[in-house]
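Please supply some protein, with fold tokens.
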Amino acid sequence: MKALIAWSSGKDSAFALHEVRRAGVFDVVGALTTVTETFGRVSIHGVRREVLQAQLDAAGLPPRIVEIPYPCPNGIYEARMGEAVTRAVSDGITHIIFGDLFLADVRAYREDKLKGTGITPVFPLWGRPTYQLAQDMLEAGFETYLAAVDLNKLPASFAGRRFDRALLDDLPEGVDQCGENGEFHTCVVNAPIFSRRVDVTFGERVERDGLGYCDIILPDQRITPSSSGNPMKAASAIRT
């Protein structure tokens, strides 16, 4: 069965891909990602499009980019995602894999929007205890960094930190170990699903709209005012 992975650049979508590849049930033929066209960054996570492309090259996944404006009214988001789903169906794709963990309203939204389209949503990580899931990611060799943090939940200094056992120990009480409530968003640079590590370095740290960002960049990427952009989020209610 041909499937797309809903790819956010972060650990949950990457681990979902890891799990389905190990199971061997689906032929994952591409990565579906929303990119805020105003800034050229993955929506919500603020990860540069160039880093996204390097991830997908390493994972052997053709990109299926859904570009959205900033700000993005939900009607525009749904229309553009609907167009992407229609194209997927015409290409013989029957499933989309999501990395959602336990947010029932998000899952119900996805199921409702895909109902009757010919695409079935798949949630391979659903309901797994997030503390154990975080440990499983680390044991599998995932190298992940926090790209953005909710400043109401975490200090700005957490942006740019590696997702490791030390970070898990430092998370304040009430913060989910996988950040499923939006406490933080991540960028994966190495994993068993990658043919090679994505070599990155870290640029400026900024605070905007209640979020703290760390700019994750490729080492040879020239930083200019136009390319540094504004990593503000868009379509925040719908995560991939």
In short: Strands lie at 2-6, 27-36, 41-42, 63-68, 95-97, 120-122, 143-150, 184-190, 201-208, 211-217. The first strand starts at residue 2 and ends at 6. The chain has a mean pLDDT of 93.
